[in-house]
Amino acid sequence: MQTTIISPPKRMPLWLRIGLWVTKRVTGKDLLPPRLLAWYPKVAFSSGLMEGLVAHKDGNLDERFLKLIRMQASFTTSCPFCIDMNSHQFQAYHITQDELSAIQGLKPLEDVSSFTERERLGLAYARLISSTPLHFTESFKQKIKDAFTEREIVILSTTAAQVNYWARLIQALGAPPAGFMDPQESDLFSQQV
């Protein structure tokens, strides 16, 4: 079992305890990462604000589309906590096992006929955003500009970047998955996690 590098502080400001209570109400879990961030309340506050303002749907970027982007960023960064949290209830978003295999990198995105062309392009974008080093060819940039509005590009970019922020932070602190997925969901995932 993975252990954290540090433990949460024993004392926290009242406003931070209220934030942790809200987080627990929203997620149904007493999440370890925000409690670890309590060592530096400014970053706990700013991280919570970022999380609270992240897009879950906007215009043509519906909940399924942005769920796909979060899942892709989670798998690309190989963050077990993020995979657990962002893939939870993926079937409720009509994400198929075939699509899951492509998100995991087990098959090419192009081989999954159920993805729309915009979804394929968004997933490829999330992979590039979540890979190191970042590299976008001019032709890929043009494809993104042709397929998405400026607002959509910002939403896609910030959605993938937000997952990357949490992935790097959570892995740096050593926080294990929170147990969002039930065993049946977990069994659908490859041993990649």
Structure commentary:
By secondary structure, this protein is an all-alpha fold. The protein has 2 domains: 14-53, no CATH class; 63-187, AhpD-like (Up-down Bundle). The protein has 10 helices and no strands. The longest helix has 24 residues, at 150-173. It is globular. The protein starts with 13 loop residues before the first helix and ends in a 6-residue tail after the last helix.
Please provide a brief summary of the model.
The chain is mainly alpha-helical. The protein has helices spanning about 15-25, 30-35, 40-55, 65-75, 80-85, 95-105, 115-130, 140-145, 150-175, 185. Helix 4 packs across helix 9 (about 150-175).
Please supply descriptive tags for the structure shown above.
193 residues; mainly alpha; AhpD-like
Helix content: 55-70%
Structural class: mainly alpha
Q: What low-confidence regions span 5 or more consecutive residues with pLDDT below 50?
A: none
C-alpha termini separation: 14 Å
CATH topology of the largest domain: AhpD-like
Number of domains: 2
Average pLDDT over all residues? 93
Order of helices and strands: HHHHHHHHHH
Number of helices: 10
Radius of gyration: 17 Å
Oligomer: single chain
CATH superfamily of the largest domain: AhpD-like
Number of strands: 0
Query: What is the second-level CATH architecture of the largest domain?
Result: Up-down Bundle
Shape: globular
Percent of residues in beta strands? under 5%
The major pleated sheet works out as: none
CATH class categorisation of the largest domain: Mainly Alpha
